Amino acid sequence: MLAGFSFGASLVARLAQKVTPEWLVLVGLGITRLAAPPVPEGTLVIHGENDDTVPLAEVLEWARPQELPVVLVPGADHFFHRKLHVLKRIVQARWK
């Protein structure tokens, strides 16, 4: 499993081009700081509705050509303050 948050998610997306992870999780993908490459089908992308660090529109623009769904956490900011329990539920539900 490879997982990353913000800038780390961008780095993990790049690493996934060299290795073949069974699971890839990108949270608050920091595509404005380092262009993220396309990722494998089935990658879990989670983004906060109120993220003012990485605009949702930029993540959707990146995901659209890949037909990659983006899970939106209502009310969450970039750091998912008071929403970490929601992140945990999303990841656990995806890979039980």
Main sheet overview: 4 strands, parallel
Helical segment count = 3
Q: Helical percent range?
A: 25-40%
> What's the rounded overall pLDDT mean?
93
Broad shape: globular
Number of strands: 4
Helix/strand/pairing category: alpha/beta
Oligomer classification: single chain
Order of helices and strands: EHEEHEH
**Range of strand content:** 15-25%
Unreliable segments of 5+ consecutive residues: none
Tell me the distance between the termini.
14 Å
* CA gyration radius, whole angstroms: 12 Å
> Strand arrangement, largest sheet?
1-2-3-4
Molecular structure report:
The protein is an alpha/beta fold. It is built from three helices and four strands, in the order βαββαβα. Helix 1 (7-15) links the parallel strand 1 and strand 2 (24-27). It is globular and about 35 Å long. The model has no long low-confidence stretch (mean pLDDT 93).
Question: Briefly, what is this?
Answer:
By secondary structure, the protein is an alpha/beta fold.
What topology emerges from the helices and strands here?
Elements: E1 2-5, H1 7-15, E2 24-27, E3 44-48, H2 56-63, E4 71-73, H3 84-94
Parallel strand pairs: 1-2, 2-3, 3-4
